[in-house]
Amino acid sequence: MVLLPIVILLMGLGVPLSLGQLAPVPDIIRLGALFDGTEVTPLEAAFIHGINMVNDDRSILIRSRLTSAIDKVPQSDSFKASKKVCQMATSGLAAIFGPSVPSTANHIQSISDTFHIPHIETRWDYSFDRGDYAINIHPHPSSLSKAYADLVKAFGWKSLVLLYENEESMIKLQEVLKYPRHVDTIRLTVRQLYTDTDDYRPLLKEIKTSGATKIVLDCAFNKIEKVLKQADEIGLISDYHSFLITSLDLERVDFSPYKRSNVNITGFRMIDPASPQVSHYLKKWNYRAGDGKGEFHPLYSENILMYDSVRVVAKAMDDLAQIEGFSLNPISCRRSQPLEYGPKLAEYIRRVEYMGLSGEVFFDADGFRTDFQLDLLEKRRDHMYKIGIWTPDVGINVTLTQSEVEGQIVEKLQNKTLRITTSDTTPFIMKKALDVPKEALERMSFEEKYEGYVIDLVKELAKALKFKYKFHMVMDGKYGNVDPKTGEWNGMIRELQDQKADMAVIDLSITLERQSAVDFTMPFMNTGVGILYKKKAPPAPNLFSFLSPLSLDVWIYMTTAYLAISIQMFLLARVTPYEWDNPHPCKSDPDELETQFNVKNALWFGIGSFLCQGSDILPKAISTRMVAGMWWFFTLIMISSYTANLAAFLTAAKMDVPINSADDLAKQTKIKYGTYCCGSTNSFFRGSTIPTYTKLNAFMESAKPSVYTSGNQEGIERVRKEEGAYAFFMEGAAIEYHVERTCDLTQIGGLLDSKGYGIALPPDSPYTSTVSNGILYLQEAGILQQLKIKWWKEMHGGGKCTGSGGEDSAQLGLPNLGGVFIVLLAGMIASCIIAIIEFVWKKRILLQDENESLLAEMWGDFKFAVDLRASDTKPVPKEGSRAGSKSILNDGSHYGTNILEGDREGRKTDHPDDESPYATFNDNYSTTKSHKG
Ligand code: GLU
Predict the structure, then answer these.
(1) What CATH number was assigned to the domain covering residues 404-528+759-792?
(2) If we measure between CA atoms, which residue out of 238, 275, 269, 237 comes closest to residue 252?
(3) Nearest-atom index, ligand 1, CA of 681
(4) Residue 680 annotated as lining a ligand binding site
(5) Which of the residues in the chain have pLDDT under 50?
(6) Is 509 within any annotated ligand binding site?
(7) CATH 3.40.190.10 residue ranges in the chain?
(8) Could you tell which of 424, 676, 684, 685 is best to mutate to test the pocket of ligand 1, judged by most ligand atoms within 8 Å of the CB?
(9) Please, where in the chain does CATH 3.40.50.2300 lie?
(10) Where is the composition biased (Basic and acidic residues) (predicted)?
């Protein structure tokens, strides 16, 4: 084998092999071929073209000329075929080609074995058991099947349908069939195309209903277009479906009907139409673009294999001719005379290495073409485009760069109008308050009728990714839940699965269950389940709420303590000698002693200390000081406690709610609670294994009437209507929005879980990662944050309940503190009454001997009190001036009554017209003096 190229080189240089003589070769080399049917097939044309091209080639078999011996055999007529071979062989044959029908081909193979004629085949043959003279140039199915399995693996398909035509497909796809054995997460469904009809629609419909999106199609070349056409009618030719077609002639399929579709169609090819050999081949064929479609195309793989096989045999004969030479003896079937050089020819063919149109041709030790390279193709518009290669050793090698792949997806997206399903959920999508007639409303676009976070989000996303879109409301109004019995989804998830929508954009939570049914982008907002509850109505304003910090008992005990302390002070001051003083300090030997702590002063001292004002009377004895000290200590503690508790009491009154967490809810039965019936919050409780949540779920499930609502809005209304008897589990983002605007609502406790809202796309959507990148961009550009602030804090009354004028304000109003004013007023009134009583009491004593009018006296005093011009001083009435004056002096009073007496007289005599109290006092003073004088 190593010597072969050296020998060929020497021969090429014209060095004779032995004794300067050329090895003998036949002048005419006959190649026999059997073709099926009666018409001239493209295969026959390729065979003849191959012979002509060898004859034209000045570098190969230059001393010989190839001729063809062609015959036709009716399909499956083995007897006739063997007869024809024998006929051809009588004139000598170097090799026999064809036919394609397996039964006939097998028969010819046994004849070729008997008569040592190399038998060349181009058909698909899976058998590993072949005759010594049989050589098949078709890539071996075992290698092809590995290529398909490698592709499925490279694409990461998790679920696929294998749509096959006959049992041979099973062999071609055996490696794909074995695939789930290695990866247990793969779901593989095998379906056979009907054999009795060409209408595959019912089968395709079943596949569509099953939700399968990855299809491996293995069928005869001439059925591919039919299957695709019917698949298109059923809706399987969409952006979300991928086809792997096993034919090596995908470039010969007419994809023009799917030019505008983004359906993903992939496959392999052997022939690179851009190679120089192929151009040369086509030129010699006189091929003009548009000539020969499908199997009639010169590049149809079977035709190319036929051409390549002629070239391979020619190359082998050329090698043999140059090394050893050969001859072709007539073969007689009757006399069992074989081809003498047959074994040599077969050996040289097996060892050949030739760069053909179908790639490099060489055979393994068993004579199979197992080592070859394939080009990986993908449909773009209406033609197939090379995106990588496959080799047995390396497997799939995609040559497209990541940016090329992304650019391609972006390009696809830009040509699309995405159908977006959504639902009416505040503040994501809200009806605008429009005052237009119904007909005008119907004519308006979705964006003219609705507004909200989602509309803005999609607008920004479309701006970034340059796609067009069209909103619609989800048909059943639901987000998407799976029916545990049927396993079927509803809501937006279902619309995505049915490809009735290309995106679902709303506050759609990303959950594991949903992720298995559709694709999700990365989250555009994060949240979790919270508890919405009605704030307790603030207690009716109480004028005396300043009394609340201390209980009634404490107030009573405190008053009692005050009285007790005052009395004790009074008594101790009497008992202790150190509280008795000389009332006349000028007299060194006093007749009497006095104590300052009479009952009045003791009470005054007690109250002055209690109110932290002190008093001008202070104890002097140790005992009384002890009492005073203790009382001050008591006062200090009581006043501090009162002050501290007053603030706490007033704030606590506002936050007073009977529940503070989910645990509190679970522990009681008085307050009912529920969720939106058909969302992820409900699923969260149903699926939870945490004891508190399972308990909550059990309660909700069994509650009658139902505690579930048909939406968040209904839940909010129920919370408000039931006045604390109903709590609603709602997502934090929605709670935040409503609490901001509806001031009687509040959130209880923190969030029970953590989740994100994502954009959902149909399963295996090609756009998922592109849309995810778009969201990431909006997040990094701060647009998501801006939108959140706009729709949560600013629009539609945001900040209503948290602003300075909000109900939560910490200011205390008159209704809370009015009582203090009342006490003050009461004190003022009481002091006036006491003043009157004091006045009356004194006057009564003063006027007991006279028939003076008490009212007139009072009127005079009042006028004096309110006269701003009146002096701040008064004369001291003289002792014993009048009968009444005695009693004044006895009583210790120093002014007033005498003057008033004088006033009466003075007014009567000297100043009858002068009404001024000031004047009256002056007059009185002079009158009194004149009396004395
Ligand atoms: N975000 C929820 C969902 O995606 C809907 C609201 C809820 O369940 O609280 O299902």
Answers:
(1) 3.40.190.10
(2) 269
(3) 8
(4) yes
(5) 1-4, 6-20, 804-808, 877-933
(6) yes
(7) 404-528+759-792, 662-753
(8) 676
(9) 24-139+287-361, 141-269+378-400
(10) 901-911
What is the predicted pLDDT for the residue at 268?
96
Query: For residue 654, what pLDDT is reported?
Result: 54
What's the 418 CA to ligand 1 centre distance in angstroms? 23
How many CA atoms lie less than 13 Å away from 76 in the CB half-sphere?
A: 0
Q: Whats the size of the chain, residue-wise? A: 933
The answer to pTM > 0.85 is no
The residues, any chain, with a CB within 8 Å of residue 898's CB and separated by 6 or more, are 877, 878, 881, 882, 884, 885, 888, 924, 928
686 CA → ligand 1 middle, Å:
13
Residue nearest to atom 10 of ligand 1 (CA): 679
Superfamily of domain 24-139+287-361: Response regulator (3.40.50.2300)
Atom from ligand 1 closest to the CA of residue 529: 9
Q: How would CATH label the architecture of 141-269+378-400?
A: 3-Layer(aba) Sandwich (3.40)
Residue 486, Cβ density class (10 Å: 0-12 exposed, 13-18 middle, ≥19 buried) = exposed
893 marked ligand binding residue: no
DSSP 115: H
Q: Which residues contact 183 (CB under 8 A, 6 or more apart)?
A: none
Pocket test for ligand 1, best of 454, 492, 515, 681 (most atoms within 8 A of CB): 681
Residues framing ligand 1 (Cβ under 6 A)? 479, 507-509, 676, 679-682, 730-731
Please, what is the Cα angle at 557 between 552 and 559, to 5 degrees?
95
CATH of domain 662-753: 3.40.190.10
Distance 536 CA to ligand 1 centre (A): 27
Bridge-partner residues for 469, per DSSP? 418
475 C-alpha vs ligand 1 centroid, how far in Å?
A: 17
In the reported structure, the alpha carbon of residue 790 is separated from the centroid of ligand 1 by a whole-number distance in angstroms of: 22
- 765 alpha carbon to ligand 1 midpoint, in Å? 23
Residue from 86, 851, 766, 782 nearest 416 by CA? 766
The per-residue pLDDT for range 289-324, each reduced to its tens digit, is 777 788 889 999 999 999 999 999 999 999 999 888
For residue 682, the CA-to-ligand 1 centroid distance in Å is 8
* Residue 1, pLDDT score: 43
Angle between helices 599-610 and 552-575 (to 10 degrees): 130
Of 710, 731, 754, best ligand 1 pocket probe by most atoms within 8 Å of the beta carbon: 731
Ligand 1 atom, smallest distance to 508 CA: 4
Exposure letters 422-453 (e unless 16+ CB within 10 A, then b): bbbbbbbbbeeeeeeeeeeeeeeeeeeebbbb
To the question of whether residue 275 is assigned a binding role by annotation, the answer is: no
Residue closest by Cα to atom 8 of ligand 1: 679
* 284, amino acid identity: K
Cα–Cα nearest to 391, from 155, 156, 169, 144 = 144
Q: Check: CB of residue 601 under 8 Å from CB of residue 617.
A: yes
Structure confidence at residue 905 (pLDDT): 40
> What are the φ/ψ torsions at residue 190 (nearest 5 degrees)?
-110, 125
pLDDT at 545: 78
